[in-house]
Design brief:
Layout lengths: L8 E6 L22 E7 L3 E2 L5 E2 L8 E4 L5 E5 L2 E7 L3 E5 L1
Antiparallel strand pairs: 1-2, 1-7, 2-5, 3-4, 5-8, 6-7
Length: about 100
Amino acid sequence: MNIKPLADRVVIKLVEAEEKTESGIILTAKAQEKPQIAEVVAVGPGKANDDGVRTPVEVKVGDKIIAAKYAGTEVKIDGVEYTIISEKDVLAIIK
């Protein structure tokens, strides 16, 4: 199934959270922080301004990004979890 986001929305797949601390302590699922690093899976066409001209989204499919910690809407499609966020919730592109 394909996901086609609208406007300036971006579909991301979060990178798995660490299960161990640096000192070797194993974290339960409840104690793990929500990951902020994700891979871009799909990108919308961009937001239209008042004149109808679209401003393209700056990220592209395949980019690794840092997203705002609790942004977006989580969805599960074909057993895979994705998050749909607004472009403004993309904090940085990892190069």
